[in-house]
Amino acid sequence: MNSHAAGGFLDGRVDQHARLVGDGSMVRDGSIDPSFSGDHEGVHAGLGAGGRLGIRSVIGWGLRFGSTLVLLPIRGLRSLRRSMTGASVTLLLIGIVSLNIVWGYPWSGIFAATVTMLVAGWIINRWMRPQLRIGFSLPSAVPVGQSFPVAMHLRNVRRFPAMDLSVHFESPSAGRRRVNPPVFESSQHRESLSMIRPYQRRDVAVSMTGNRRGVHRLPAVMVESMFPFHLFRSTQRSPVATEIAITPQLLSADEDPIARGLLDALGGWSHRLLAGDALDYTGSREYQVGMPVRRWDFTSWARLGRPIVREFQSPSIQMVTIIIDTGRTNADRGATTGTRKSKRSRLPWSRNHLDQQVDRPLERMLSLAAVAVESLCQRQVRVRLYATSESLDSFASPRSLSMVAQNEPLLIQLASAKRIGSVVAAKRVQEVVEQLGRSPILCLTTRPHDDASLDLPPHVTMIRVDDVPAHDDVAAETSPSDPLVRASDSIGQAR
């Protein structure tokens, strides 16, 4: 290596009087530059590392390529086995039988025909694989356990028709272990379509049921094509981004004595809140389906020829705030993950284990809150709702301040509620109460009666929702420690 090459490669400059000595230092005009030794070693080290990295990348690429070549036939056979139908299996058996018979006419023709049909059917099935754009029409919210219609809009975006189709929502595999029950269940397993012409749309109606509260995405849509002649099956999975809110189920008095007591406590609070308030006439509007009617405006109805209703509102109660305390307590943990004596009940796929995943106190509290929202909205009272799982900024947002007497946005808000820490929840409840002043407030909580972490002013009504197993023999018996009495006793300060 000459001095010109060394200087140009290592230094980027040309030095005719530079040379390397044995220890790796550079000599310039008779003087030794010891600082060059480290740079020289670093360059050689970098070259060595780069060479090792290059070798490793080549080895890794070779291993990946080899594994792909080895696994490609296996993946192809598995894909072929999944796509085969009863017709293709029958043709395959005929071809195998024709090979085991003495070769000659007509068995050679049968074998050739079966092979040709199998190959041509597989190629045509892959070539005619449909490409669909899927849209949905469904309600924005629905209670738990209630069926709701879903309309799938299938549009063929190819220049070729989509034929022999089967469309359905993806269902959880029966062979897999599932810790939680399925969120959705469909009453119709498959919908068969003979053909969708190019750039045309077909609608498919499906009935579904939501099993778990929350805001969930719809399951993926599975599109299967068995063209031609149902020889092979091509399956495409289309993920769905459409969401629906599964709201809490309304608490019913027929469930158990505790539910009846909670509803009585809520009814007493509502009666005390609105008792003696004369309703003011706010105006008339055209009747719409589902609108609560307090009084018909027959004069306007006769003049306009359309049903007109009169609207009233309480002058003193302009807005009511409902606070949902979702703080997690020790009692809630026990109710959610209770132990079972049976070993079978502790299996991840057993029904008892699935039942343990449901937070019963939280669900009962949200069901009671849904009843309160429905009742107040029917009386044309504006309701603000705050769940402690939300941030305080969301409560102070303009959308929350301008809430009208509509129950659906509030029920969707209840669907999103979840458990948080007990200390954080208590702090958020107290901050919201301080912001509201002395306006009517109803606080629902699952904290036990002896929990002093949530200290609220006297004008705030608190209803404690306990989840105690109900028995028929104690339906008519109550004691001071009974949650029914505790809930009723907390109604004294409603305003």
Tell me what the structure shows:
This protein is α+β, with helices and mostly antiparallel strands and 495 residues long. It folds into 3 domains: 3-59, no CATH class; 132-247, Immunoglobulin-like (Sandwich), CATH 2.60.40.10; 257-278 and 314-489, no CATH class. 38% of the residues lie in helices and 22% in strands. It has 14 helices and 21 strands. The protein has helices spanning 3-11, 36-83, 86-100, 107-127, 257-274, 298-304, 330-336, 351-356, 360-378, 392-395, 398-401, 408-415, 422-436, 483-489, and strands spanning 18-20, 26-28, 31-33, 132-137, 141-143, 147-156, 162-169, 184-186, 191-196, 201-210, 214-217, 221-225, 234-238, 243-247, 280-286, 295-296, 308-313, 319-324, 382-387, 441-445, 460-464. The strands form 6 sheets. A 4-stranded antiparallel β-sheet has the order 4-6-10-8, with no helix packed on it. A hairpin with a 2-residue loop joins strand 2 (26-28) and strand 3. The radius of gyration is 36 Å and the shape is elongated. The N and C termini lie far apart (96 Å). The model is unreliable at 1-47, 337-356 and 468-495 (pLDDT under 50).
Write a brief caption for the model.
The protein is an alpha+beta fold. The chain is 38% helix and 22% strand.
- Main beta sheet strand tally, sense and closure: 4 strands, antiparallel
| Backbone CA Rg | 36 Å
Helical content (DSSP H or I, runs of 4+): 25-40%
Strand content: 15-25%
Mean pLDDT: 75
- What structural category arises from helix and sheet content? alpha+beta
Uncertain runs are 1-47, 337-356, 468-495
Number of strands: 21
N- to C-terminal distance: 96 Å
Query: How many structural domains does the protein architecture include?
Result: 3
Strand order of the largest sheet: 4-6-10-8
- Describe the global form: elongated
Secondary structure tally, helices: 14
Region (Disordered): 473-495
Keywords: Membrane, Transmembrane, Transmembrane helix
Transmembrane segments: 84-103, 109-128
